[in-house]
Amino acid sequence: EIYYNATLYNQTTQISTSYYKLEASAKLRLPPAAYDYAAGGAGLETTVAANRAAFDNWSIVPRVMRNILPKRNLTTTLFGKSLPAPIVMAPVGVQTMFHPDGERATASVFGELGLPYTLSTASSTGFVDVAEANGDNPRWYQLYWPTDDDLTRSYLKSAKENGYDVLVVTVDTWDLGWRTRDLDRGFFPFIRGIGVQIGLEDACAHEKLGFNPLSPNATDEQKQMAALYHVISTSRGVSPIWENLPKLREFWGKGPIVLKGIQSADDAKKAVEHGVDGIIVSNHGGRQIDGAIGSLDALYGISKAVKGKITIGFDGGIRSGADIFKALAIGADFVQIGRPVLWGLAHEGAVGVRHVLKSLLAEFDLTLGLSGCKSVQELNQSFLVAR
Ligand code: FNR
């Protein structure tokens, strides 16, 4: 049972239930490179802002005097599995940047709550250790699709063997966006020309880099960023294409395949045509293209085009229970939580992650009830009005 009394819980932790205070105190706790890596976006960061602004384009219209009991039903079925709530961990790489327990902490808390945990290809912790921390609970694997088929097969084999049973293929990040906060720290030469052409070790030693992540003097952040960029460089700046999906299906075998990073209704229709099991409407938290459509605005058009034909996930800017309500009402079948979990992780690892998730669940449950819904299945666009 994950229904949660936030008021009670709040007496047992010093961590704020306000997202903005949580982020501010995470910033104080984290090394600046780690905070900027997580908080930052592409270019002028207008897409990061658009993701939030899109939530303000919709207002909740509550219904009252209905027979609502103190406990709402958040249960949802995704890809044939019953889950306690339609909430999934967004894949996030190199989590030991935010706390030494990194992925172990986040995977253990998602496991405790029975909510799916998505392991990133750029994880700082391996398949086996994360599976062990996650226990006998649903877990998914996010793939940065390498150009080398042997490498792809080997990733998928490890995922399958360790119980990751939904494959999430990120299609918007075959090259990294223009992230100025990271560029200014000298993190990028790995993929921008140098890493791809001459390999990791030589790239690390390259004078233009300004630091050598393989040297004993490198900071932890520098080493982790180097590993991340190395993973991305396995796609060598080459975009995945629809035509190669059958090959991926063959490598993965039985089990759902979900495309993450869909923003256009036409691409959503193509995903349906290609027999993909799900899509995740996402712009990578505004980290890839500056000046792009807010993810919730994209969700509206995509729901209109493919709702009911394919499972629709959503991420980008979810910060509160009301945000979860709006995304599901517009048409998402599930939502993913990204940055809030990282800010939680920065607060003593699992303790902070648990606090963030339980607060989100409690606020969502409460918003659902106060708006006149007994269950998530009752949510639809009639509960919203566009501003
Ligand atoms: C991400 N995201 C991401 N996505 C992915 O498919 N693989 C990855 O390894 C990562 N890594 C990653 C690191 C960090 C620090 C962030 C903030 C994000 C994108 C993530 O899955 C999700 O799409 C966004 O985080 C959603 O935006 P918000 O709600 O976190 O702002």
TrEMBL record:
Where are the catalytic residues? H284
- Keyword ATP-binding assigned to the entry: answer is no
Q: Where is the FMN hydroxy acid dehydrogenase domain?
A: 11-387
Q: Does the keyword Signal apply?
A: yes
Cofactor(s) needed:
FMN
Q: Which Pfam families match?
A: FMN_dh
Q: Which residues bind glyoxylate?
A: Y37, Y144, R179, H284, R287
Q: Enumerate the GO terms in the molecular function aspect.
A: FMN binding; oxidoreductase activity, acting on CH-OH group of donors
Q: List keywords of the entry alphabetically.
A: Flavoprotein, FMN, Oxidoreductase, Signal
So where does FMN get bound?
91-93, 120, 142, 170, 260, 282, 315-319, 338-339
Which PANTHER family does the entry mention? FMN-DEPENDENT ALPHA-HYDROXY ACID DEHYDROGENASE PB1A11.03, S -2-HYDROXY-ACID OXIDASE-RELATED
Its family? Belongs to the FMN-dependent alpha-hydroxy acid dehydrogenase family.
Protein name, UniProt field: FMN-dependent alpha-hydroxy acid dehydrogenase
Which species expresses this protein natively? Eremomyces bilateralis CBS 781.70
Higher taxonomy? Eukaryota, Fungi, Dikarya, Ascomycota, Pezizomycotina
